[in-house]
From TrEMBL:
This is F-box domain-containing protein. It comes from the Eukaryota. It comes from Fusarium duplospermum. Residues 253-269 have a biased composition (Basic and acidic residues). InterPro entries: F-box-like_dom_sf, F-box_dom. Residues 3-48 form the F-box domain. Residues 241-271 are annotated as: Disordered. Pfam families: F-box-like (PF12937). Coiled coil: none annotated.
Amino acid sequence: MPPLHLLDLPNEVIRDVVSLLPVKDVKAVRYCCRRLSDAASAFLYRSLYVSCHDPNLMVFEMVSDNPLLLGGVQELIIDDTTVSPVLLNRRLYQQLSSQDGFWKDRKTPYFPRDEDDSWDNEGRTWSPAATDQMHQLLVWAYENHHQNRLANSDVAALWAALPGMTSLRSLVLTNRTADDCPAEGAQSKHNSSPVVREWRKMGEALRERLPFPPRVDWWVPLEDDQHEGDEVFEPDWLLDGASHYMTPNEDDQFSHHEQDDDGLARSDDGNDDAQELALVHTQAENQAALPSNQTPLPLSTRLLRRESRGLRIAIEVLRNPTMMHRLTQFRVDASLDTLADVQTPGLSMRIFDFVAPPFVNQLSTAFSKMFLTSFAVVLSNGRENEAGQAILDQRQFSSVLASMHCLRHLMLEAHGMAVVGAIPERFTFPELRTAEFACGLIARPELRRFLRRHRNTLQHLRLLYCSVDDDEPSWSDLVQDILRLKTMGHTNLRTAVMISGYETVPFTGCGRNRSKTSPPPEEPVYSWTMGVNEDVVECPIEQLGHKALPRLPEP
């Protein structure tokens, strides 16, 4: 059979061919002819970001104005990040960047090729503060952010575009930053917003990360229950650490606040004494860049706390009658950038509290009317497990899970909480295929009951950075439970993996950013893969959920 010219093929075949191309090639194909342009347009913006940042909003509106582009959007990503207005002042921006601790990752490539890849070349001289070029990019990205936020410009653009998103299947809520650099999902290497893409592009060109990428803290626990009332759930509420410590007045001097006002963390040992975050000290080589009377600032100057604006927008999308029939996936891509190791990434567990606005009822109602097949969520527990666990025990979050009757893939990351126990005890997902539990507490009886209830459907199980929550915790016993259930035919798992399992309960931190509290030196951390290991094995150092000291050589 003689070869066919591409244009001699049916439109369906052309679309299938174009769907396999990378985005840069899709752009090139669109310039060939009208027919190829129409076929390729549907694959140009498979993921579309909406936020209050001007560049993101402009691209969103541009796509919305083109039905061919808008009709190809398969994933809508709500970028909830924001920026402190203080940083728009060039002098304050440079003063803050010159202090040690606020730009600690500047020498690390965004996506290093290997472990030895570094921008810190021998003999390189690093500038004492961020440059005007860097500040110009920040102003370009965020100059009108807060005007757009107060005017709800992003929400208005989103409502106008939703009817045209005929291919939309996935909704994502994220607070990831340009510095997160995940392997997949929102703000990854091949799926990033216009702002993050330009941010990293300049960083790659300058061979140093830019300071102060847009960010937001969904929950930062404060001392004495400061800002813990209903006002934090208002859509325009924002707690800005930089504005608290810095004032762009006539002389550009810092405001002076007592360090005692900064109660953003507790100690790792579990007591109630406030742990003062380390003050940021000016590097000696940077002294010339600062006024002689500059006050060293705490790391909480980076604080940008806002709990529910992004979630409110996501809920309204989920409740849209048209979207209920289109969306099949909902995911929370949480930033791993926390102010201190005692804090954990993810949505505030407080949004599932009885005293919070009716987020639970809204989510449960929306999910119950959808054919939701994939659900992934990350929950922050504040500063200690009692706070989040008490809310989890109210079973509000459990009612949200129980509303998903068509779920096939579940990823639940609940820091320091009963992660398997969050699922209602007598509830079964009729079609569940994959379950992943991370950074939580696993009780052996709860896991056994979960596996038995899902024996007919569950094929894949992953346990990451979890602790065994038993009187005599033992990962070996838990692994034997799984193998025994499989031998008895009470589970039909094809794969089961456990990575970085702890037998004590780490008091703080998250395993994904390796900030968990280190266990006692004599206590091993385990891993296990079904079909490869008969019993647990010691976890490799590179997979640990905490920062481990290098081992001393054998004598």
